[in-house]
From TrEMBL:
This is Histidinol-phosphate aminotransferase. NCBIfam families: hisC (TIGR01141). Its cofactor is pyridoxal 5'-phosphate. Its EC number is 2.6.1.9.
Length: 360
């Protein structure tokens, strides 16, 4: 590789580990990627199969049909929507388009890993603001803003803490930002919160707010990689300039459209997640493992120390239960556990009970 070197910033990116993959043997339960344990809606599988017959053709370049469906369901102007290969790609577009060398990309202490990766890949400087007891601190974010802050990322609910802040706090943050900064409210888990619009009303009301959403969580399409963003028309125009013309495949577009129109299935998934999340949090607490009230499809189980969390992770792995270590998020004494189906929740709770009872 003589003379061939990466752009500055790239080598500071730690290669992504964990999440997908892993052993999917017969008795293995994967609770590490916040996937929907009920799977995709049947309507989406049918739409995908129908679209597959046309796979010799390039897909839509403007995603008009999917944008129209999203617009109808959420009451948003389709002209102000953009679709990407997961919301990860939308985050990447935002950094590419708005942050370069010398610019700062700000996010909370336990913020989602893609904010840092995308900021560094764009040559910008990631900046972290402290949280208060694993909850986003708006004052700390405002204090951390500087002349070159271009983007402020905030997941609400947040990953991996599961906590969220109120709409008044989001508005206060948007109002307090310097002129050159765009607030990005990442709503990957917004659908799990009944009656919450993910920040859409704030985007409609203010020019300096953008919202991202995904089909990977509640809609059960993580493997297809579809996400979307909502922002002011000028921001969408800028992002479309960095978007490749055929970024989403036709089967993925068709499945996502079917999934978002299947309101009954989405509601069933939301209700079932809330039921099992409450059950799991209570069961773990009874075994001496507390968690913050989660608003998402996972809980952050807190152990006494990083050593205990690691030992618990190893204990679970031996029993075919794959959960997520979150030391990379600055939470080494915790494990993030996706809310699985009833059987998976019982298995993981029983195993943690056995671990805490000294059966290790
Ligand atoms: N934001 C947050 C907070 C997430 O947890 C995730 C998925 N782990 C994403 C964005 C990206 O999701 P996707 O690219 O699958 O849409």
């Amino acid at each position: 590789m003589a003379g061939i070197t990466a752009q500055p910033g790239i080598m500071q990116i730690a290669p992504y580990v964990g999440g997908a993959g892993g052993d999917r043997g017969a008795n293995v339960v994967k609770l590490s990627s916040n996937e929907n344990p009920l799977g995709p809606p049947a309507s989406a599988v049918e739409a995908l199969q129908a679209a597959a017959g046309e796979m010799h053709r390039y897909p839509s370049t403007d995603h008009a049909s999917l944008r129209a469906a999203i617009g109808e369901v959420h009451g948003l102007d389709p002209e102000r929507l953009i679709c990407g290969v997961g919301s990860d790609e939308i985050i990447t577009f935002l950094c590419q388009a708005f942050a370069g060398p010398g610019d700062e990309v700000l996010y909370p202490e336990h913020g989602f890993l893609m904010y840092k990766i995308s900021a560094l890949a764009a040559g910008a400087t990631p900046v972290v603001a402290p949280e208060r007891d694993r909850v986003v601190d708006v004052d700390a974010l405002l204090e951390a803003c500087a002349e070159r802050t271009r983007l402020v990322f905030l997941a609400n609910p947040a990953n991996p803490t599961g906590t969220m802040i109120g709409e008044g706090e989001l508005a206060r943050l948007a109002e307090g930002l310097p002129d050159q900064a765009l607030l990005v409210i990442d709503g990957a888990y917004a659908e799990y919160v009944e009656g919450y619009d993910g920040g859409a009303a704030l985007v409609t009301a203010r020019d300096n707010v953008f919202m991202t959403r995904t089909f990977s969580k509640l809609y059960g399409l993580g493997g297809l990689r579809v996400g979307w963003g909502y922002g002011k028309a000028e921001v969408i125009d800028i992002l479309n300039r960095v978007r490749g013309p055929f970024n989403l495949s036709a089967p993925a577009l068709a499945a996502a459209e079917a999934a978002i129109r299947d309101r009954a299935y989405a509601e069933r998934c939301r209700v079932e997640n809330a039921r099992m999340r409450t059950w799991l949090a209570r069961a773990l607490a009874e075994h001496g493992v507390p968690s913050d009230t989660s608003c998402a499809n996972f809980i952050l189980a807190r152990f006494a120390s990083a050593d205990q969390a690691q030992a618990a992770d190893a204990f679970l792995q031996e029993r075919g239960l794959i959960v997520r270590q979150v030391g990379g998020y600055g939470l080494p004494a915790a494990l993030r556990i996706t809310v699985g189906d009833e059987e998976a929740c019982i298995r993981v709770a029983d195993a943690i009970g056995a671990f805490m009872g000294g059966a290790a």
